[in-house]
Design brief:
258 residues; alpha/beta; UDP N-Acetylglucosamine Acyltransferase, domain 1; Udp N-acetylglucosamine O-acyltransferase, Domain 2; elongated
């Protein structure tokens, strides 16, 4: 059964799954897909290109899959995907992709708190948390389980690594490696996200190995290339270390605090 408030405007062309609830004054445009069990609260707008998974929760005033804030955008076809069980709180704004990639995407089980913004061509992994008013620019990657504190802007083309945690009110203007805590202005490495890692089942051996790797990476006597060489030689077979090395290999903007 689909429940639609009589004041909502829902296109007959939209594809809507079972047990979807659409609240008052919601607008759903033509090229929209909404998975079963999803709830959309009052005055949200679901624009063309939205692809919502199952059991998504969208709160009042949110804007999903609006056109990019990019002067080169020429109304080309693009989409915005939202994964299953993701929560989008009040007045969040999510912009679909440009011709560059054709899409923006949020993974499964994410939480985007009130007033957050995710710009065009940006990809969020699974289990990501963006606290209130985080502002994510275009072409950003935020990997699985990353947490970004409130009021933090993320510069375009930056990468934020898996299992990292960034304090509120800072600025991410370079790539932020996985597994770490980051704070201060300018943003600095402040050790591993140990509490988060333990909650997710990382063993003491895993944590100690990552500590050793980050000791090399943020050593004042080693540059990034030298640190990578030592990490590969001494612990390169470990899966978590491989995740770190892959991130370093793909980094284009330099590392925060380095």
């Amino acid at each position: 059964m689909i429940t639609v408030h009589p004041t909502a405007i829902v296109s007959s062309k939209a594809k809507i799954g079972d047990n979807v609830t659409i609240g008052p004054f919601v607008v759903v445009e033509d090229d929209v897909e909404i998975g079963e069990g999803t709830t959309i609260q009052s005055s949200a707008v679901i624009y063309n290109g939205a692809r919502l998974g199952k059991n998504v929760k969208i709160f009042q005033g949110a804007s999903v899959s609006n056109i990019p804030q990019d002067i080169s955008f020429a109304n080309e076809y693009s989409i915005f995907e939202v994964g299953d069980n993701t929560t989008i709180r009040e007045f969040v704004t999510l912009h679909r992709g440009t011709v560059s990639t054709g899409m923006s995407k949020i993974g499964k089980n994410c939480l985007l708190m009130a007033y957050t913004h995710v710009a065009h061509d940006t990809i969020l992994g699974d289990n990501v948390i963006l606290a209130n008013a985080v502002q994510v620019a275009g072409h950003v990657e935020i990997h699985d389980y990353a947490i970004i504190g409130g009021m933090t802007p993320v510069h375009q083309f930056c990468k934020v690594g898996a299992h990292s945690m960034t304090g509120g009110g800072f600025r991410i203007t370079q790539d932020l490696p996985p597994f770490m805590l980051a704070s201060d202005e300018p943003l600095q490495f402040h050790g591993l996200n140990i509490i988060g890692l333990r909650r997710r089942g990382f063993s003491n051996d895993d944590i100690m190995l990552l500590k050793k790797a980050f000791g090399y990476l943020y050593s004042k006597s080693l540059n990034v290339s030298q640190a990578k060489t030592k990490i590969i030689e001494e612990m390169g077979d470990n899966e978590n270390i491989k995740t770190l090395l892959k991130f370093l290999e793909n980094s284009k903007r330099g590392l925060i605090g380095k």
